[in-house]
């Protein structure tokens, strides 16, 4: 084949590969919008096209940016969630120690939490690459491997479990910080704030239960965490977020938070501790729902 003709063929192949790559990113971006905004394919494509025209950039470029932003947001949420889940594991083990009649429930909830942690780690292995995966994510996985043997049925003390859980919190904090350093978009920081809310609520109850289970345990940061939770909730309320179900999610969190604060004020005793654990569980699910609604927000994806 003549050199000029071969060059033309190569150029056409390159063009076709480029078109296929552009279509791949566009299809992935449409899928993101369909999922997060609950749109059909046609409206999702129109939203993507209109946004590209408004920003005066080519649609495939915007599509790539949207997908990468979405994946970074997902990775951040999953990394940050590990902090909260580690505290939840300790809270459930303390609950089983203080309320033996809830042992089976605590074991089941621990198994569910373990499943979430392992699911997060598996997804993070898919999302992350390079130094972040080799350093920060590897550290999170090593801390998780050290914590697992201490879970119900327990092979160590609550204190040992709490210390191992704190190591997982610290490693997850470093991973989340590294992900934030890769992109300074305000929406990612709002997602990080949502994740911190879930950490605070689990740590509050964990510290209260550990103080009941071990007279020598000094609750850490209880007053500070109470104030930090309310401040962060107000920041989220003031953020330019728009999504169906957002106000309902805030209302639910407000009611569940008030219930948790009342339970904290009751002090010790089996009924008071049961009320505290029940309130914690309600708030846990309420904050999960709020985080999901924030993730669906168009501003979170396209600001």
Structure description:
With 303 residues, this protein is an all-alpha fold. 84% of the residues lie in helices and 0% in strands. The chain has eleven helices and no strands. It has helices at residues 3-37, 41-55, 59-98, 103-127, 130-147, 158-182, 186-213, 222-238, 246-265, 270-296, 298-302. Helix 9 (246-265) packs antiparallel against helix 10 (270-296). The chain is elongated.
Q: Low-confidence stretches at least 5 residues in length (pLDDT < 50)?
A: none
Number of strands: 0
| Helix/strand class | mainly alpha
How do the helices and strands follow one another from N- to C-terminus? HHHHHHHHHHH
Helix share bin: over 70%
Name the overall outline: elongated
The value of Rg in angstroms is: 23 Å
Number of helices: 11
Distance between the termini: 51 Å
Overall pLDDT score: 86
Oligomer description = single chain
Biggest sheet overview: none
Strand content: under 5%
Keywords:
elongated, mainly alpha, 303 residues
Brief account:
By secondary structure, the protein is an all-alpha fold. Helices cover 84% and strands 0% of the residues. The longest helix has 40 residues, at 59-98.
Secondary structure layout:
Layout: H1 3-37, H2 41-55, H3 59-98, H4 103-127, H5 130-147, H6 158-182, H7 186-213, H8 222-238, H9 246-265, H10 270-296, H11 298-302
Helix pairs in contact: 1-2, 1-3, 2-3, 3-4, 3-6, 3-7, 5-6, 7-8, 7-10, 9-10
